[in-house]
Amino acid sequence: MTRISFGKWLLPLYAALALIFLMVPIVYTFIFSFNDSLKSNITWRGFTLDKWLHVCAVQNGAVCQAFGNSLVIGLVATVIATTLGTMIAIALVRYRFKFRSATSLLLFLPMATPEVVLGAGLAAQFLSLGVPKDMLTIILAHTMFCISFVVVTVKARVAGLDPALEEAGRDLYGSPGQVFARITFPLLLPGILAAALLSFALSFDDFIITNFNSGAVTTFPKYIYISASRGIPAEANVIASAVFILALVLVVTAQVSSAARAKRQAGLG
Amino acid sequence: MVTGAFADRGADLELVGIQKRFPGFTAIEHLDLVIPAGSFFALLGPSGCGKTTTLRLVAGLEEPTDGRILIGGKDVTTQKAYQRPVNTVFQSYALFPHMTVLENVAFGLRRRKITDARSLAHEALRLVELDHLAARRPGQLSGGQQQRVALARAIVNRPALLLLDEPLGALDLKLRRQMQLELKSIQEDVGLTFLHVTHDQEEAMTMADTIAVMNKGRIEQLGAPEQLYDLPKTAFVANFLGQSNLFTGPVLGETSTSITVDVAGRGIVVPKARSHRHAGDVTIGVRPEKLTLHRENPVADSSHNVMGPGRVRDVSFTGVSTQYLVAVPGIGTLVVFEQNRSFGPVEGEGDEVWLTWNVEHGFGLDDDPADWETKFVADTSTKSIAAQRRATLVTELEEA
User: For the complex shown, is ipTM > 0.85?
Assistant: First the structure.
């Protein structure tokens, strides 16, 4: 009897502990976004909504400036990496050409290389080419490592696409452009979207490579890193919490809508 | 680009000196073929014989290494797939999973900018009795329904030529029979030219007006199903289209109407009109259902060939008929089909029997026996039977 009750409680207890362990920093960040802080945001000084209402007020809007930079870099790098990566993935699966497997292998390298090495290598390269470090160099660097992830994600989707579908499109009077737009692209879209989301998350989150190649430009992770030495303002907590809540809402919406769709299809079939 | 009007009738298809090489092997050696407008033509052959490649060449999904393709007298060799007045029903159906059934069927019409694509698509779906499922996705349909959508999606375009790539292969036997009849009646209704590729000889015989039997990238024989079955030209056709008992021997003598062939000491008579060769070593044959079993040595008779005595080695009851394997010393094992007119098998294993068949039922092949003597002379050694069984099993597995 004791053994059974022990086993019955152990797993939920373990799960609860693991969850708490994971959630504590997030909850802490969220709570302290409401702290009526002064210069540093370490001790609790009372509840206020001020930081949420006036996010950009602090330090002449440095937090918002950094956040905006991160958004722009993330979006541009994602669009470029997703476009190029999707094209590469289709080429790698659909066509036979010289150095095809070598290309496949080389695309893995940026994922396997330590970020510090990549960041330093790129910085050295930009320096020797005389390219000034700014937004452009950050976008180039992010695009480079995002492409690998896009190729890997989209490649799986292309490999699962029956070539007969595209042949059927051509057979039914679809020109190559129409076949791509109406058959290939819609069928690859879930994979492409997943790749884009991953790219954006990776770019938005990146600190190490950015730090090497950003010059005077400050991104959101870089801003937090720099201000950590003299106290992170509560406004950073606000933005971090907002991003977290946004992501949570997106995930929950996707789950609920896919569950509803599954239910509808089960009803039909 | 094919736009505007439909083809009002099927068109001739003409293949002239087609050759197709892939890196490492030749799929089609040299192919000349004319398929008249409005016919239901079947390309029949084992897997790897080049029949699907032929179909893909006609559809424009592959380019021939050499030769020309003409549809309705117009050279389409250099046209792309989307420019040819041809539609295909794919083996895997290849329905677009992200579109509804109706959108699938209307796809070709929309690409050709045909007005009222919707109502034409509904009409095609009514033809295959699936209009009530127009709003579903292909993934929500059964295999048979998907097959019919694929058919509707192709015929709605009224192509001059409809290509069918083993479209019934994935269906179970009963559904397949039903679809065979439906396809045939649709072809008669719409009057298109159908080119059907299959490895199922029964399917080809049920549906096609004309069958071309393909082997190793060449056409072995072409003709109406009855003609191919009654008078096969080569050993391959004799055995791929149904079964045959084949014997090889020198011609002993001839009259004005027939030849006599020496088969292990027995004179077997074949009408000249039914034999492709009249001198030298020839291979003759007879279909298993044309043979009659006798318990006693039958009285010699100029209108019948006699073989025996032999021993019944195997009896398999298949309902409508019974299949006997009869070992005749010096000749080999013969296959005999007997209709079960009264009740079950009349002979038992080990019984001594004689075989007769009407002289008019024999046929003589065009093959030079020297070319394949070692391969086709009936061999009763257990080793060769085992090897043969394995070969058939392997092909069955490959096809499955």
Answer: no
